[in-house]
Amino acid sequence: MLPRAASKFVEAWYALGHVKDDSVVAISGFNMPLTPEYLIQGLYQLYRTSGHPKNLFIISDTFPGTPGRGLDWVAERLYKEEGESQEFIRGMLVAYYGWSKWLQKMAQENLFEAYTWPICVLASWFRDVASGKPGTLSRVGLGTFLDPRQDGGALNDLAKEKRTVKVDLVEIDGEEFLLYRAPLPEVAIIRGSRADELGNISLDEEGIIGPILQIAQSAKSKGRRGLVIAQILYPVRSGTIEPKKVVIPGPLVDYIIKAPPSKHWQSATIQYDPRISGQVSVPTEYLDIKPEPLTTKKLIARRVLLEMVRRVVEKGSYIVINLGVGIPSIVSTLIVEEGLQDYIIPTVESGPWGGLALQGADFGVALSPKAIIPLSEQFVFYEGGIIDAASLGFLQVDKEGKVNASILPGRLTGPGGFPCISTGAPRLYFAGRFTAGKQDIRVEEDGLKIVKDGDIPKFVENLYKILYCPCNAVEEGREHLYITERAVFKLTSEGLELYEIAPGVDLEKDILAKMEFKPVVSKKLEVMDKRLFKKTRMGLREELLEALRR
């Protein structure tokens, strides 16, 4: 008989000591949910004390950390203490650098090769390379900075020179695709809630189901003996985890480390809330949500919500939507504020359905969601156009309706899930302020009062980087609106058309003069719904119920 397998529980220093120089290291994340913070810090501290492991190439499905946490904690020390002499990181491929100003600084100064792909591509890539494919084939990214005819996902000069990560243009039956390729992971550093001595791992207390199984599989594929190290909270006896709750089977896992609760948070500001993991479900009306103050952000989010309500009326049933970061995420709160949670089901790209999606650095989890599905499966709904609509933010828009959502000089944030959602959603409501820069714009009962406008135009002749191209969108019948606090545009075959303005603004002075191109102005220019400017509820639930009764 074979001897009983030894327990896989070890100290962090022992497990991390097996990571070799020059390794390709895959790390799970999505901000703080599923970020193995304890192991990330331990890996860097090992490097600081011994000089090893060094020259690591890090790949993450999203970004493992938030400001001051996870990889940002590491990057701050690398930048401040080592600068150009840092040898810890030789390259990175992540979907979003926006939570780390230090990694952005390092990327801009070419201290490592910086690459980025959308979340959906990275999640699919781990699965594809684990199954022996050369990479991931996708239409996401065509006509954008991810396209090899532009930057191919390279964020700095060092990446453009080295091309460790490649994106190739492929044609199949006359149709263009992008083939995303990167080096295979040799080490996987992941996170779960419970683990037994055999290495079986569950996600009981986590707020999302990220691609941790696929990350582990990618390190073990093709007969390679890759290293899989997992951070967990609760060691348990073998046989005590229900088989259906095992997300990663034990044979895939080499070492398990029990982390202190202080290094294992559900989100950036919440260590543990059973409502986030779905262990307790509270009716949405009892979540004690404070009404959003009536600012230009709320005004824009309200205008987005009007479109969502119209879609419910058209469909005669509930709708499923996606809400991006920034202003669109406020719509989740307004849905509850207006009592519409039974008719508009918001989803977050990390997997939650319904409930109250959290904002800011807590983005990615929700309070009392009705369902939490795997991240990779969530993106099928977006790329496949299975949802009804999506609202996403923007930094710049051009006359053809192309969008730059997140990249400017000195701001290398990356695409996140934006290209995946915008490529597939049948109705897109881009939401953002009309101008950028310091401004004083007040929402009053009778309309908008612009005391001081922002001095940076956002509707521009040329985008700094293209993150979304509405190629053939009009011909395909996909609806595109661009919603701001003072103007609403729609995409037509002739480009952007202005068809709605806020009361209190001057068409020439406050809108057309602040754009770098001249849009088509509708002959039936409308004024925004006056209810958008009310301090009290808009009464959308009552309006919706009345419309559905007709």
Please write out the topology.
Layout: H1 12-16, E1 24-27, H2 37-50, E2 56-60, H3 70-82, E3 89-93, H4 101-108, E4 113-115, H5 119-130, E5 136-138, H6 157-162, E6 166-172, E7 175-181, E8 187-191, E9 194-196, E10 201-202, H7 212-220, E11 227-232, E12 234-236, E13 255-258, H8 274-277, H9 296-315, E14 319-323, H10 327-337, E15 344-347, E16 352-353, E17 356-357, E18 366-367, E19 371-372, H11 375-383, E20 389-393, E21 396-397, E22 403-404, E23 407-408, E24 411-412, H12 418-424, E25 427-431, E26 435-436, E27 440-444, E28 447-452, E29 456-457, E30 479-483, E31 487-492, E32 495-501, H13 507-511, E33 520-527, H14 540-549
Parallel strand pairs: 1-2, 1-8, 2-3, 3-4, 8-11, 9-12, 11-13, 14-15, 14-20, 20-25, 25-30, 32-33
Antiparallel strand pairs: 5-7, 6-7, 9-10, 16-19, 17-18, 21-22, 23-24, 26-29, 27-28, 30-31, 31-32
Describe the structure.
This protein folds into two domains: 12-261, Glutaconate Coenzyme A-transferase (3-Layer(aba) Sandwich); 294-549, Glutaconate Coenzyme A-transferase (3-Layer(aba) Sandwich). The chain contains 14 helices and 33 strands. It has an eight-stranded mixed sheet with strand order 15-14-20-25-30-31-32-33, with helices on both faces. A seven-stranded parallel sheet has the order 4-3-2-1-8-11-13, sandwiched between helices. α5 packs across α7. The chain starts with 11 loop residues before the first helix and ends with a helix.
